[in-house]
Specification:
The chain is mainly α and 155 residues long. Helix content is 66%, strand content 0%.
Length: 155
């Protein structure tokens, strides 16, 4: 559990930290401070103020190539009620799958049944079906036949 600073003292501490970051050349640390400040603002029901900090943090993480941190900032921005464009579509479509979903999808592309995939991965056929159910929308397909057009087996 995170220990958040209390009240107006917290605002002063966060602002002081951002001022100090502005004097140095550490953009990652500044972005992390903005992220934590934005999280705190959101949790204290100051969503409009939080959006500015979170947007700045996300932009900085994007510039630095810190994808997991940018995703965390984007999730916090969504929690403030600000809708974000889908950031996952730019790269490999397989990047949006969990490791387990990826294994199941790769085996499904080969034509294996849920029972065969389950036996191979030590999963129940129902669990295999669940992974496919979650993976299909992420990949933009609605059937196993459509998986073949993605050429997932080539990777």
């Amino acid at each position: 559990m995170r220990c958040w600073p209390k009240g107006s003292a917290a605002v002063g501490l966060y602002e002081r930290a951002l001022t100090l970051h502005g004097e140095g050349e550490q953009p990652f640390d500044e972005a992390r401070t903005r992220l934590v400040y934005g999280e705190w603002l959101r949790r204290t029901r100051r969503r409009a103020e939080a959006r500015g900090q979170l947007q700045a943090a996300m932009d900085a993480f994007d510039r630095l190539g810190a994808t997991p941190w940018a995703a965390r900032a984007a999730a916090e921005l969504r929690a403030t009620g600000l809708s974000q464009p889908d950031r996952s579509g730019a790269g490999d479509p397989l990047d949006v799958l969990t490791p387990q979903e990826l294994q199941v999808v790769r085996l499904a592309v080969t034509g294996a049944s849920n029972r065969e995939i389950g036996a191979h991965l030590f999963l129940s056929p129902r669990t295999v079906a669940s992974h496919l159910y979650k993976a299909f929308p992420k990949l933009g397909v609605s059937s196993r036949a459509e998986l073949a057009r993605l050429r997932l087996g080539d990777r």
